[in-house]
């Protein structure tokens, strides 16, 4: 369930939000949605994979945190063990909403039923004692704007991947030291061979449209699987 409201100081002046990482706040997730405009930051920490939605037949991009549902190998002792958190995670419990008319600028909404909403007086204030946005809220507003823009630009990116048939199915078998095995399936990655086979005109088009860099970043991110496996092994060793 969710309870979305337009954020305003009159109704939410005393609101506080838990900002540290914890499973109880929804951080125990195997993956998070990411947008191409943040791929450069994402690839330095996480593998980027793509998943097709069966209902819409559309692709989305994901940063992987683990190998099983509910497993976040970057989450431990109230801390997020990476230098970058995907924007879709960092903005919670806030989101961009539209006016009831469906027209006009996006508005900052908040989900008052989200577990990050503080009910005990702890956490970071959203508004100060004068009803002005705190630096925390100003940063959230910046992230919301960047994420919203990233989502709007994503459609052209995925259309380009489809046009050049640059996504291929991906399965990864992960044998572990305790004898168990994790299998990742149902995802896609950039098809490097087809990318290499593109002619100069196609590559020029991808570059001029701003798609070539995020494609390269998605490819580069696959090197992070070794680190993800190492985190899994460390989690097993630690019990």
Draw up the topology in text.
Blueprint: E1 4-6, H1 9-12, E2 16-17, E3 31-34, H2 39-42, E4 48-52, E5 59-64, E6 75-76, E7 79-80, H3 87-90, E8 94-97, E9 107-111, E10 124-125, H4 135-163, E11 167-175, E12 181-190, H5 192-197, H6 200-208, H7 212-221, H8 225-237
Antiparallel strand pairs: 1-9, 2-10, 3-5, 4-5, 6-7, 8-9, 11-12
Pfam family, one: SapC
InterPro entries: SapC
Protein name: SapC family protein
Look at the structure and give the mean pLDDT.
Answer: 92
Query: Which value, in Å, is the CA radius of gyration?
Result: 20 Å
Low-confidence stretches: none
**Structural category:** alpha+beta
> What is the number of helical segments per DSSP (H or I, 4+ residues)?
8
Shape: globular
Number of domains: 1
Give the beta-strand count.
12
Spatial strand sequence of the major β-sheet: 1-9-8
Strand content: 15-25%
Keywords for this entry:
3-stranded antiparallel sheet, globular, 239 residues, alpha+beta, 23% strand
Would you write up a description of this structure?
The protein has helices spanning 9-12, 39-42, 87-90, 135-163, 192-197, 200-208, 212-221, 225-237, and strands at 4-6, 16-17, 31-34, 48-52, 59-64, 75-76, 79-80, 94-97, 107-111, 124-125, 167-175, 181-190. It is globular and about 60 Å long. With 239 residues, the protein is α+β, with helices and mostly antiparallel strands. It has a three-stranded antiparallel beta sheet with strand order 1-9-8, covered by helices on one side. A three-stranded antiparallel beta sheet has the order 3-5-4. Strands 2-10 form a two-stranded antiparallel sheet. The mean pLDDT is 92. 33% of the residues lie in helices and 23% in strands. The protein contains eight helices and twelve strands. It has one domain.
């Amino acid at each position: 369930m969710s309870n979305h409201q337009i954020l305003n100081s009159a109704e939410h002046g005393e609101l506080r939000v838990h900002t540290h990482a914890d499973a109880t706040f929804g951080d125990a997730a195997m993956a998070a949605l990411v947008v191409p405009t943040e791929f450069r930051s994402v690839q330095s920490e996480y593998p980027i994979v793509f998943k097709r939605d069966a209902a819409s037949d559309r692709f989305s991009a994901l940063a992987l945190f683990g190998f099983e549902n509910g497993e976040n190998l970057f989450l431990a002792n109230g801390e997020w063990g990476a230098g970058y958190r995907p924007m879709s995670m960092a903005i919670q419990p806030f989101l961009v909403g539209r006016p009831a008319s469906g027209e006009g600028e996006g508005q900052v909404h908040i989900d008052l039923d989200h577990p990050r909403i503080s009910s005990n007086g702890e956490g970071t204030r959203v508004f100060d004692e004068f009803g002005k946005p705190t630096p925390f809220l100003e940063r959230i507003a910046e992230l919301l704007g960047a994420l919203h823009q990233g989502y709007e630009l994503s459609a052209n990116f995925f259309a380009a991947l489809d046009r050049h048939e640059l996504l291929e199915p991906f399965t990864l078998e992960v044998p572990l030291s305790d004898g168990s095995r994790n299998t990742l399936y149902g995802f896609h990655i950039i098809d490097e061979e087809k990318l290499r086979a593109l002619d100069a005109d196609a590559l020029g088009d991808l570059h001029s449209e701003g798609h070539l860099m995020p494609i390269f970043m998605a490819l580069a991110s696959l090197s992070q699987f070794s680190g993800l496996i190492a985190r899994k092994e460390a989690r097993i060793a630690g019990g």
